[in-house]
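Database export, one record per block. Field names are fixed; values are copied verbatim from the stored entry.
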Amino acid sequence: MKMSRRKTLAAALSLAVVGLAGCGQKEESKSASAASASAPAPASSAAAPAAAEPLKVGFIYVGPVGDAGWTFAHDAGRKAVEAKFGDKVKTSFVENVPESAADAERVIRDLATQGNKVIFGTTFGYMEAMLKVAKDFPDVKFEHATGYKTAENLAQYDVRTYEGAYLAGVAAGKMSKSGKLGVVASIPIPEVLRNINSFTLGARSINPKATTKVVWVNKWFDPGKEREAATTLIGQGVDVLMQNTDSAAVVQTAEEKGVYAFGWDSDMSKFGAKAHLAASVIDWGVYYTKRVDEALNKTWKSDTTWWGLKENMIDLKAFNASLSDEVKKLIADKRQGVIDGTAPIWKGPIKDNTGKEVLGKDAVADDKFLHDIKFYVEGVEGKVPG
């Protein structure tokens, strides 16, 4: 009976609308139960264009956003995207995603399924998972940090962290009283070895007798192990520390033990105001805003990008008050030499720590050489882990 009444009312309304259309009037029609219903207003001749949906951009982090280092810097880059593009984009992130293939693939695939059209994977261990998922989502643009494999919809990007490490080494060479330097290192891949070696090259450009000790923690983020490694190095006479790990534990330990340290990937001075000599700071926003802009303008293409000082993607910043103007000028001069090519970091002759020449006299390392580093340079103690 209810359906019959609805059909009867609809028919009555239709007749009313047809009749009223001729005289240009508008009336209310009432049902037998005195309920009223208004006739629909005439449709406009041109519908208003629908607002464009924001571009969904996803980020996958290996550590927590509060790590003060690598992941913190990437998340600052994500925020730079939001600040630049406003409601044109909608960003999201998943933190603490392990580098294991199964975990990484699950998260990457989930972000793609949720409609993210650009996905940034921010650590080396995500490479194979991203390559696999990219094949299943050809309309999604994937970006992988620090790897070496690409596809039509998978780009690779990195930052020349070794340039920041080199400038830190220059400062360390001037500030160390013992000439004994230390590095708390994460995982023995070319990226990390390149940073350790460049730090040592920077220090030895100032003090040719400077040496570097290394303790490996085999993790990117483990504050407890990082603190333990820093304590071990300080116990061996090291008075300046660098790290290639993600927490602020090394700077905090240096502050407690009365030695110097460098912030890594971001300014860590708040964790040790006296110890913090400077920080090798990455600005991922330089890259992220460019690539998101290309995605918005439909000019994005798969590519391999490796930017550094020249592109303002990394720099040594947040100097300690103890660094004199003379030291700051020295760092600035070295920086400019790297940028304009008049003083390359990796220029021969360079030997490994067994005495073997790895780069001939006046030869300048190309990117292939730098990506394949699997040795310690002269001045770094010990052997590279197998």
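Remark 1: The radius of gyration is 30 Å.
Remark 2: The mean pLDDT is 90.
End of record.
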